[in-house]
Amino acid sequence: MISLSDVSKTYNEGRPNAVTALHGVTLDIARTGVTVFMGPSGSGKTTLLSLVGCMARPTTGRITLDGEPVSGLPERFLTELRRVKFGFVFQRFNLIRGLSVLDNVMLPAAPSGEDPKAVQARAMMRLEALGLAEKALMPVEVLSGGETQRAAIARALVNDAPVLIADEPTANLDTALTHRFLDIVAGLRDAGKTVILTSHDPRIISASAVTAVVEMRDGQMVRGRG
Amino acid sequence: MKTLRRQRALADYTLAALARRKVKNSALVGVFSLVVFLLASAMFFASALRHEADTALQGVPDLIVQHLSLGRQGMISEDRIAELESIRGVSKVRGRLWGYYYDRVVGANYTVMVPDGGAMPPPGQVIVGEGVLRARGLDWEGAPLFLSRKQGDLSRFDIAKTFDSDSALLTADLLLMNEADFRAFFSVPAGVYTDIAARVRNANELATIVDKATRIMPDERFVTRDDIARTYMKLFDWREGLMVALGAMAMLAFAIFAADKASGLSAEESREIGILKAIGWDTRDVIAMKLWEGGLVSIGAFLLGCVAAYAHVFWFGATLFAPVLKGWAVIYPDFPLAPVIDAAQLVTLFLLTVLPYAAATVVPVWRVASADPDAVMR
Amino acid sequence: MIFRTPILTLLLVSALAILVALGAAWFGQRVLRQWDLTSGSRAQLLMERRTELISTLFAMVMLAEAVALFLFVFNADRMAALFVGAMCAVGTLNVNPYGFPALYAKIGVFFAAAVWLVMDHVDRLGRDYPLTRAKYALVLAIAPLVIVAGGLELAWYLGLKTDVITSCCSKLFTPANAGISDEMAAVDPALALWALAGAQVLVLALGTFAAKTGRGHGLFALAGAVFFAVALTAMVSVIALYVYENPNHHCPFCILKPEYGYIGYAFYIPLFGATALALGLGAVAPFKRRGSLRAPLPPVLRRLTLWAMAGFAAYGAVTLYAIARSHLILFG
Question: H helices within C159-262, ranges in order?
Answer without folding.
Answer: 169-172, 180-186, 189-213, 217-234, 240-244
